[in-house]
Amino acid sequence: MVTAKTLQLNIDNMTSDGQGVARLGRDVYFVPGALPGEQVTVRLDGRRKKVWMTRLVSIEQPAADRVIPDCPHYQRCGGCDLQHLAYPAQVNFKQQRVEREFSRQGLVVLEWAPPITAEPWGYRRKARLGVRFSKDKQRNFLGFREAASEHLTNIDRCPVLPAFPALDWMRWRDGISTLQGRDRITQIEVVAADNALALVFRILKPLSLADQQSLCSLAESLSADASLQLWLNPGRDEPSVCIFPQQPVELVHFVDEQPLKMQLSDFFQVNGPVNRAMVQQALAWLQPQKEDVIWDLFAGHGNFSMPLARRCQHVSAVEVQADMVSSLQRQAESLALSLHAIEADLSNSGVLAHLPAPDKVLLDPPRAGAAALMQELNARKVSQVLYVSCDAATLARDLSTLAAAGYQIEKAGIMDMFPQTHHVETMVLLSYRDKCRG
Ligand SMILES: C[S@@+](CC[C@H](N)C(=O)[O-])C[C@H]1O[C@@H](n2cnc3c(N)ncnc32)[C@H](O)[C@@H]1O
């Protein structure tokens, strides 16, 4: 059978999600875990359209950039996919990938900024781990879902999470195993703010008081600097309840050297140092002036809007999630900043019609991009648009619409928000040049 076959391949390229690519005659092969320049043996897994999916069996000739992955669970855990590539080469791969997407769309960038990078390990301040009780084995599993499967990989530590004593997963797994309601916990979410670390336990049914006390005792023993918080969450749309400590501090992270409040359910950028550098770069590129009218679209909890509102008086922040909008508005009011937070769905571009015409627009959409907004920006001929994106393909698609209408890409730069993975964040500054005015 063809799926049992092995063959030798020379890898000459990489897919946008970091798999090695080889060509043999007219056939194309994707090889997860292989790098350009390598000679490898693979097993064929099956064919999708014209591409063979394969599994790496052995590496006959390794690439100069190959390194030993730091994590023992790498390639079983579905989290990271570039740990086998030396860090500078990861950044280089991401830079080339974004440039390739841009050139596919015929985009011209006047100036590329140097990539923004920070410490490539221990950076991830948000993560979700699965918990499962196996009746057969009469024990709990705690870890990440394996790539493309429902199986949990048990982990003791994760090198992309911060090295807090409270993130000792072996202790939590053992602790959960002793609970009466050990089959009621399905997930632990990590929210690492700058002033505290919150663990949110998703529960199917309420835990007994005795079980809650056991978890609190464990939290106390792991909370070296008293900054650990333990929350129980009974369901996606239900509020979480803090069981440790009794009076939890409000979570904040620092942006623009100021604390920004964050709620447990908020979207927030996963990499603190890269986020801070990204916001500083956005401010340096946009140069907000006191009288500027600025729209911050897909504003989240104000990562960009609050720093902008400190510098200018007419900032409108638009976001679809009501709880982030109200928290942002409250925060701005408490600091006497004139920021207008608006709850609206930006897939309907008409929602911007009543806002004062902007001098500058910052947009930071989710992965799908902001296709619905491009006509609005084209019609408005905004003098500066700063586009922040976590998906190079939808970014290039949206930029090509703007470029066709007369926008010029002044600057672009990548930000390595997600080291050890293929994901890349990009910032682009566009200016509007009216061809009729020359
Ligand atoms: C990539 S995040 C950026 C958030 C923020 N700019 C930041 O840096 O933290 C995208 C944000 O867009 C919001 N969003 C997603 N779809 C939206 C829509 N259709 N209309 C408005 N906001 C949306 C999400 O809730 C999320 O807060």
How would you summarize this macromolecular structure in one to three sentences?
With 438 residues, this protein is an alpha/beta fold.
Could you give the topology of this structure?
Layout: E1 6-14, E2 20-24, E3 27-31, E4 39-48, E5 51-61, H1 87-104, E6 109-112, E7 126-134, E8 139-145, E9 152-154, H2 169-177, E10 185-192, E11 197-203, H3 209-222, E12 228-233, E13 241-244, E14 252-255, E15 258-261, H4 272-286, E16 293-297, H5 305-311, E17 314-319, H6 322-334, E18 339-343, E19 360-363, H7 371-380, E20 384-389, H8 392-404, E21 407-415, E22 425-432
Parallel strand pairs: 3-5, 6-21, 11-12, 16-17, 16-19, 17-18, 19-20
Antiparallel strand pairs: 1-2, 1-4, 2-3, 4-5, 7-8, 7-10, 8-9, 10-11, 12-13, 14-15, 20-22, 21-22
Helix pairs in contact: 7-8
Bound molecules: S-adenosylmethionine.
Question: Would you kindly provide a written description of the structure presented here, covering whatever features stand out?
Answer:
The chain is of the alpha/beta class. The chain has three domains: 2-66, Nucleic acid-binding proteins (OB fold (Dihydrolipoamide Acetyltransferase, E2P)); 91-119 and 268-432, Vaccinia Virus protein VP39 (Rossmann fold), CATH 3.40.50; 126-249, OB fold (Dihydrolipoamide Acetyltransferase, E2P), CATH 2.40.50. 23% of the residues lie in helices and 32% in strands. The protein has eight helices and 22 strands. The chain has helices at residues 87-104, 169-177, 209-222, 272-286, 305-311, 322-334, 371-380, 392-404, and strands at 6-14, 20-24, 27-31, 39-48, 51-61, 109-112, 126-134, 139-145, 152-154, 185-192, 197-203, 228-233, 241-244, 252-255, 258-261, 293-297, 314-319, 339-343, 360-363, 384-389, 407-415, 425-432. The strands form four sheets. An eight-stranded mixed beta sheet has the order 6-21-22-20-19-16-17-18, sandwiched between helices. Strands 9-8-7-10-11-12-13 form a seven-stranded mixed beta sheet. A five-stranded mixed beta barrel has the order 1-2-3-5-4. The chain is flat, with a radius of gyration of 24 Å. The mean pLDDT is 94. The structure holds S-adenosylmethionine.
